[in-house]
Amino acid sequence: MRRRHFLAAFAAAALAACATGQGTARYDLIIAGGTVYDGSGEAPRAADVAVVGDRVVAIGDLSNARADRRIDAAGMAVAPGFINVLSWATDSLIQDGRSQSDIRQGVTLEVMGEGESMGPINDAMRAEMTARQTFVRYDPAWTTLGEYLEYLERRGVSTNVASFIGATTVRIHEIGYEDRPPTPEELARMQELVRQAMREGALGVGSSLIYAPAFYADTDELIALVAAAKEFDGGYISHIRSEGDRYLEAIDELIAIARATGARAQIYHLKPAGERNWRLSEAGIARLDAARAEGLDITADIYTYNAGATGLDAAMPPWVQEGGHDAWVRRLRDPAIRARVLAEMRAPAADWESLYQLAGGPENVILIGFKNPALRRFTGQTLAQVAAARGTSPEDTIIDLVIEDNHRVDTAYVLMSEENIERNLRWPHTMIGSDAGSMAPEEPFTQFSPHPRAYGTFARFLGYYVRERQVMPLAEAIRRITSLPAQALAIRDRGRLAAGYYADIVIFDPETIADHATFADPHQYATGVRDVLVNGVQVLRAGEHTGATPGRVVRGPGWTGWRAD
Asked: Which of 8, 175, 178, 233 has a C-alpha 20 to 30 A away from that of 507?
């Protein structure tokens, strides 16, 4: 299939190359009269963009060329489709393949796999995945990561999809939720799972090291997994082991893994978390610059908010979570264990990461998602408000809510400073990821209150930080969300507007693009993006979804299908 796409694009490009006299070529589509930002970071230019099939075939003055259809882009920016390097649309795309909240911001590729991926899974993992489902219900009939991605493509998605293989997923597959190192035999099987995923098109290995059971993996285990991915030119991407008190040491671990394996490495949502750690921002970037000067390919991504979102599990020590969710809840019901957990939640976290402590207080902890309908009245309230209403301490309230919800409880933690967000955005190797699903203001998504980043990350970047705060020129900002992630993730033929590249194209108004979602009212679409094409098919027209689902699986450098080229 890949070879057929290539030959079609080659033929289209050859046709365009013959059109030196204008009017001799005929195109499927011309996007006319826009200001083209090609993704390189270079200055924009007034130009037309021609598409044949699923590829861009010409850029320039095509005013006299013939086309089956024209889109007038006068007064608009025309750019490559935006790449969301940290997407949690893993199940939201199963529910609604239109990817509304991201498409309406110009996102044309969702990249998944922060520590956990949707494959490989075994029977026990499949049963657990089914049991832990909340608003989105589905039958995980696949086994491998590649099968999951192909399932999305067959089902119909508007965005393209790609994924890392989760280091946590591989660990659970072979070890379960035990706090111990793998045996040599288990580690060898884990490496083989990584190799299989790479052959299927995974981009590399992703980790998320503050959570159990990922927390139990040591550096050597991670090096072994990343080394297996590197055999196929795969990369490593990580929610590092600490974003708080051991922030610099955690950066050092990522650099050590890159150095030991030679793999590209990226830090998820680069940030020093907690006010006492904000001072570490400059030192962290200095470490990354030193690693790059050494020759290591180190990059980072960020979301454009001062609050992160995860669960109340990030407020409890990892040891109590050993064995998985059910074992965790059983322990919390034991009075003696509960007392120990309460003591550790209140004492300085010496060897684990407490986002509750880093937030600085219960007023900076926002509860945004419950599984139990009886608890949904607390959605959008702070932990301080809920604790006061229930007459319990914040720490007791955390434990009680996890038990009553029988779920980790989706939670936002206010952790970052605006000064550091802008500093990290200015680092030339930082790109953008939403760290959220892609949804719509309709059932079942309206049953919970997501972090506003699900609706606003990219629009907020281009509107607030680029247009209003002027942290960088627009051409550079577009590079950060197009060609930079494509290069960092070794993605072929995407991220640029150039002949031969896939026709993932965004037409937007740089003067009006804006986010509107808030914690109080998160289900609000961003505005300012007018038209979006994915693989040459128009998915957004005049700000409205067309219903088209032309998204495809985007595969990494180890995919066996590349051999057909």
From this structure: 8
